Structures are given as C-alpha cells and as structure tokens.
Input
Amino acid sequence: MDDRREPPKPAVRASDRDRDGALRVLAAALAEGRLEPHEHEIRSERALRARTADDLAVLTADLPAPAPTRSEQDRRDLSDWLAEWRYWLGGAVIMSGIWAAHSAQKGELTHYWPVTPLGVWAAVLIAIAIWPRDTDRRDEGNNS
Output
C-alpha cells in the first residue's frame, strides 16, 4: 500500500472581503434567476458564517461570476489603454535609440523616421479613447 499522500493544506481563513464577494455572486445569481429566494437566503447565511475560503467556494462553485459593472469595466479599459501608452513609450525609446545610433554612425542628424510609426500608433490610441463605444451591442453578444 502506497502511503505517500501530500499532507492536507491548512484551510485559509475567510476575510470580510471574501464573504462580501461571495454575497455579491449570490445576489447576482438571485437577480438572474439562477437561485430561488429560499436557497439564496440559506447560502447567504452560510456565507456570513463561513470560516474558511473553502466554505465560501462550496457556496458559489455552481454559479458563474457576475459580469463586471460599468464602472469596473471602465477602470479595466482605462488601465488597458494606459498600458498601451506605456508600450508606445517603450517603442519610442527603442526607435529613437536606433535613429540616434544611425545618425551617430553617419555623423549628422538624419531624418527622424520614428515620427511616422509613432504618429500612426498614437493616432490609433487617441481614436480608441474618443471613439464612442457601442455597449448595448457588446452586451447583446454576451447574451447570445
């Protein structure tokens, strides 16, 4: 008989934030009709009494995570957009370095060619920021 089992991992204690997250999932499931009011009440009471993260996971394991709210999605979009600008800056540094090395090799300042790709890239990022989003259409695609 092989008795080389891993020792059980200690249960991680649930925080108030963990309990609130589970309650949000349960509330969304109730609103979507995935849970009956009675079952929601039972699971919510158990979530409030949960001591470990495993206790909470059992209560929400059969439910999908709720869709992000508009403000959460806006924060995520802004974060992604700012990350794109950081990539743009990195590209600007690299291309400018290549241009500078080429100019130094020639012994004179040559045409600053990075302006074209950086300008196009910046124009796309600005267009993304000001172009209106069709959120109704995006939501319809998720429901199909």
